[in-house]
Amino acid sequence: MFQPDLFIKNAPAGEGEIPLEIERVTQSFSSFQPDAASPRGSPLDEDLDLPAVLERLAGVSARPRYTYMVLNLIARAAGQTDSAGPYVREAGVATPVRDWLTAALMPMAQRDARRRVVFAQVRADLEQRNVLPADSLLAEQAISEEVRARILRSGRTNVSRAVSDLVRAGLIRRHYQGFRVDHKNRGAQREAVYTIAPVVRRVLGKVG
Length: 208
Description:
Layout: H1 20-26, H2 50-60, H3 64-78, E1 83-84, E2 87-90, E3 93-96, H4 97-105, H5 113-128, H6 136-168, E4 172-178, E5 190-196, H7 198-207
């Protein structure tokens, strides 16, 4: 699981263009102490403010700062509406909202020391399977592609967990759209839609 810097400079387009206001606000978690009686998923007060949002997140999430970043990205994807998904369209490309969130958070892994550990693990795995190209440049490319694939898989899981925390906190609702099939996975062949509570949008609007 990666916890690198989200706000890396010179990130690829669409993979790091996150308002710096998010960083300033999420820094408040370093000194924030939630109330022991913090409500979990209770009805939202119309007078909800940022400290109350942070308190809810701290009460339900093991990674409240990351979860708050996801909330802000969902609001960004929603634009002028209350809902993000099932697709986010950028530069004429429609991307499922969870994949868009995962890609937006990818820069967090760029400068993390643990990425080097994963890089070494991938190299060892490819060598053990005897699939690492003999050419050094091709080998580095193969390793980088596998590292990115692993980060994406981990990122999708992290985003899903963060969204579940936001749902438990009562800050968003989640449903699925698309072709429904008889499958144990309720999201199979369907894409998620995240709807932000109007009062939460007002709070985020004040922050931004």
